[in-house]
Amino acid sequence: MYSFDLDRPVTLEAALAALKAEDAQPLGGGQTLIPALKQRLAAPSRLVSLAAIPDLCGIDLEGETLTIGAATPHAMVAGQAGAYPALAALAGGIGDPAVRNRGTIGGSLANNDPSACYPAAVLGSGAVICTNIREIAADDFFEGMFATALEDGEIIIRVRFPVPQAACYRKFDHPASRFALAGAFVARFPGSVRVAITGVSEEGVFRWSEAEAALSARFAPDALEGVSLPPEGMIEDLHGSSAYRAHLAGVMTRRAVAAMV
Amino acid sequence: MPKDHGIGASSKRREDIRFLTGKGRYTDDINLPGQAHACFVRSQVAHGRLKGVDISAAQKMPGVIRVFTAIDLEGVGGLPCGWQVTDRHGNPMQEPGHPVLATGKVRHVGDPIAVVVAETPEQARDAAEAVQPDIEELPPVLDLRGALAEDAVKVHEELSSNLCYDWGFVENNREDVDKAIATAHHVTTLDLVNQRLIPNAMEPRVAIGDFNPATGDSTLYTTSQNPHVIRLLMGAFVLGIPEHKLRVVAPDVGGGFGSKIFHYAEEAFCTFAAKALGRPVKWTCQRSESFMSDAHGRDHVTKIELALDKNGRFLALRTQTHANMGAYLSTFAPSVPTWLHGTLMAGNYRTPLIYVNVKAVFTNTVPVDAYRGAGRPEATFQLERVIDKAAREMGIDPIELRRRNFVTEFPYATPVAVEYDTGDYHATMDKLVEIADFAGFEARRAKSAARGKLRGLGVNCYIEACGIAPSHLVGQLGARAGLYEAATVRVNATGGLVVMTGSHSHGQGHETSFAQVVADMIGLDENMVEIVHGDTANTPMGMGTYGSRSLAVGGSAIVRATEKIIAKAKKIAAHLMEAAPEDIELKNGAFSVAGTDKSVAWGDVTLAAYVPHNYPLEEIEPGLEETAFYDPNNFTFPAGAYACEVEVDPETGKVEVCSFVATDDFGTIVNPMIVDGQVHGGIAQGLGQALLERAVYDEYGQLLSGSYMDYAMPRADDLPSFTVDHSCQTPCTHNPLGVKGCGEAGAIGSPPALVNAVVDALNRGGYEHITHIDMPLTPSRVWAAMR
Amino acid sequence: MTEVSMTVNGKAVSGQVEGRTLLVQFLRETLGLTGTHVGCDTSQCGTCVIHVNGKAVKSCTIFAQEADGAQITTIEGMANPDGSLSPIQKAFQDYHGLQCGFCTPGMVMSAAALLAENPTPTEAEIRAYLSGNLCRCTGYHNIVRAILAASGQGVAAE
């Protein structure tokens, strides 16, 4: 790793002040950033850890809305987000137990790895990302592989999930990294269905509108018959062709639906 | 009734205590006063002309002690190759130089160009980034067949081509084999790839060089399976240090699997630099660095043809392999596709005519050498796959086809130059049929089908040649080393024993099982026997641990040395009891005179040896310490039968291993618990190869699978529990313990079982066009095959 | 350099670290607790797993400063007070759940964390929980049996 200073503020105000330094970068749970630093893929002059700020950690349920603090680790969501079982299950399937004890929802969303799980839940749920300066709808947040709407100095404070009537995430594990080779998050709301696909597209997580339309018309696995993703623009690498990934996205979506009916 | 001590007992491992409490002492746990840290600058391109290296900026970086390039390694020789193969025309293989640091050219991604030595590891790494190699890129040589084209770019300009050797075995069989295949009732042909693997012992390599200016002695601490071999190769060929001025220590080593046999550049560099700088120099490999600097394994492209008569009797076998050597010849690389591969092509079967052709090829990739099984997995995979394919083509049950061709009479001389001393292949197959419940398969298949899954059953046999030796034979085959093993047994005055062995334990539990052997022979508590290994300063010259040889060869040396101890102790006991030595019996740690009630305890005799007041000094020397070198007169031939059941998800192509059963004949078993564990681990590595693992280079020679993010290691939830049985035992006929070796069996026998099972599942599921899928059988490959 | 203080295996410790100093480096290099290992640089292998405030954490993927004030347990703190093997360690020995020993500290720490969360896990739960701990020697078979045994559940003889 290149040398840097590490700040560990305990208040949001102090964190935001520290992040004003040149080349400062926020540090969530570090489960992606620290390996990247080891590979010398990033050279921040200052890292500002958000993990020690009590206000950023926790889970709240108010009516039909579940709010999760940005620095809440995956293990806590897995164990305490029972009000949104599909989300809890998704969090419980990220990485491995030790990673889940450190990795955070805010860190995952800010990184927007094209194969990460949380972006599918956020986009599939139509969640709202609350930052220190604004609220961003999930549909406006993800801007392609490793790119988000976050601006310099803007950090995620919490994420607000509308709890759907039913939801399910189905993930096909990448054989090496255990990220999603393909993952489908299906959420059913009164009058609408949202389907978010991760792991598949070169543009990162996306909503599969054809599947949403078919499932909105009739919510059943066979409603997806004849609905498929084109391989164009899908990730192709040593672990699978673009056609395979497109196909897997369909299988995962159908299985998610099957688990919900 | 299982035994509770000695040979045959599942004694708990004594080494576990230190490993379980964090007190193991691995090389990276060692820090010497004043040590500096090395970081290697490695080529980021696969092939290029190295026109210069600008180290000026790096030298000025904080903490930098010195930056080395090839010109700074005055007097340092290249890394030697320990095996010379003769090609089918009688010519020696082409053997390029292998410099410690690149000179003239870089030949693979990861090829070391320079080394920064600095006060801290991070300072060394900071400065390594500032080293500027001037490289003119050349087109990389990556395709094995393309590398042999007339106009192919050459990896080594000084060689006439990229062909290391064109080996034919047995060359005199060639025409007869061709004829038999041309006229046979049935010929089954299979083209396959045995993919490149990366060994990935969990402990990355580490080297620490140290130099004592007072004595002029050098010491290397290294993660090695064979410290004596490293001392010999590095001392004699690379650094010119005589053995008596060089000590190599391999302390606790976190797994090897072959990758820690070889002598690596980093070891030579740290030893050299410690002397040059006058302070210890430590290098700790990062995992991502190990992917491009540890020798890789396998990487064969093969065509195999099996000729059968109408009854399914094997008539002839012909195989043609292109074997990837990588950019340089690693220490034992040439032996792997030849003598460890061609000699095993008969398998468990009576095939009268066999011809093996291997073309070893240089490419711009990491060097390839022995990895768990080394050549034998490649032989077993192609043979057992082609037999399965033949069975399907001819409509013969795959087990029956194998049984029809089993070798049943021993000794059996194969047409590929080895002689199996003993075995019983029907017995292991019978046991397999019993344990694996083949009768219940159809019901299990129907259950899977009800869940939308395709179930399949794969069976295969394997044989391997272990205990690699004898020296006179391997010498004829091109080995530039002897392959004996040595042991010194030192009995202390108060009766405890220290056994110093040239074998090295890096997970195999020698400290426990070797003690069991010695304690059993004398009739003592195992805790009275201490096993010392891993340090050239206090062990006799031995060749180390690989090829499942430790108990068969190293254990035999211990037996021979202990026999000498017992013989001498009997003479002392005879003197003490005023009897004839031939009348002395040793039982349960006490000497008695046959037919009398006279006896003396073990401790009385050992004390007399060191306090020789009442002692036959005119006949024997005082003391009780003996050394034996054991050079076997043949390989050992473990064999077995494996079965695998899988479920394939037809929608995703994902293969789930439902069960895995292994029946092995390892001859005599010293510690059944340890043997089970060795087989479990071998199976996991074999299934890792069959399902998950693959080193992949892109068209530029960049390693795409360069970390655990892309190189799929088998994890706990990828595998089932295994059923292993080694109740079938035909003891080896030519070593004193009757042992055969068990370390590699699982890795050799399991890949074909899995692939056979998947092909079976797909065929039963209506995908009859699928006759083979290359490993690893990843979901995407299986899915693609079904399209 | 920054001063950090924490409790490691019940003992208060402190030391000077850089921002980039990983917790595993602090344990191994500053405190000399070399039982915790480093087997990869991508947070996959799990040989470095320790407990931070009672939770399993990969000590190669947390900075030493982030553990300031924390309660740390490493493999060196897992034996019984009299130095004898604790039940989990004993089960690893009894069931031959280790070979080369390199992954073992991380495996034991993960196993302890699992049993704290789930005192009687199934085989499938054990395998899932260990998915972040690589072992190249055992094929996991005997590790799973050891953990089943440590949890007080019956383990079939082999």
TrEMBL record, chain A:
The keyword Flavoprotein applies. It holds the Pfam family FAD_binding_5. Keywords: FAD, Flavoprotein, Oxidoreductase. It comes from Rhodovulum imhoffii. This is Carbon-monoxide dehydrogenase medium subunit. Gene3D superfamilies: 3.30.465.10, CO dehydrogenase flavoprotein, C-terminal domain, Uridine Diphospho-n-acetylenolpyruvylglucosamine Reductase, domain 2. InterPro entries: CO_DH_flav_C, CO_DH_flav_C_dom_sf, Diverse_Substr_Oxidored, FAD-bd_PCMH, FAD-bd_PCMH-like_sf, FAD-bd_PCMH_sub1, FAD-bd_PCMH_sub2, Mopterin_DH_FAD-bd. The keyword Cytoplasm does not apply. GO terms for molecular function: FAD binding; oxidoreductase activity. Residues 1-166 form the FAD-binding PCMH-type domain.
TrEMBL record, chain B:
Keywords: Molybdenum, Oxidoreductase. Gene3D superfamilies: Aldehyde oxidase/xanthine dehydrogenase, a/b hammerhead (3.90.1170.50), Aldehyde oxidase/xanthine dehydrogenase, molybdopterin binding domain (3.30.365.10). GO terms for molecular function: iron ion binding; oxidoreductase activity. Residues 21-139 form the Aldehyde oxidase/xanthine dehydrogenase a/b hammerhead domain. It comes from the Bacteria. SUPFAM superfamilies: CO dehydrogenase molybdoprotein N-domain-like, Molybdenum cofactor-binding domain. This is Xanthine dehydrogenase molybdenum binding subunit apoprotein. It comes from Rhodovulum imhoffii. The lineage of its organism: Bacteria, Pseudomonadati, Pseudomonadota, Alphaproteobacteria, Rhodobacterales.
UniProtKB/TrEMBL annotation, chain C:
The keyword Cytoplasm does not apply. Residues 2-78 form the 2Fe-2S ferredoxin-type domain. PANTHER family: OXIDOREDUCTASE WITH IRON-SULFUR SUBUNIT (PTHR44379:SF5). Pfam families: Fer2, Fer2_2. GO terms for molecular function: 2 iron, 2 sulfur cluster binding; metal ion binding; oxidoreductase activity. It comes from Rhodovulum imhoffii. SUPFAM superfamilies: 2Fe-2S ferredoxin-like (SSF54292), CO dehydrogenase ISP C-domain like (SSF47741). Keywords: 2Fe-2S, Iron, Iron-sulfur, Metal-binding, Oxidoreductase. InterPro entries: 2Fe-2S-bd (IPR002888), 2Fe-2S-bd_dom_sf (IPR036884), 2Fe-2S_ferredoxin-like_sf (IPR036010), 2Fe-2S_ferredoxin-type (IPR001041), Beta-grasp_dom_sf (IPR012675), Diverse_Oxidoreductases (IPR051452). It comes from the Bacteria. This is Carbon-monoxide dehydrogenase small subunit. Coiled coil: none annotated.
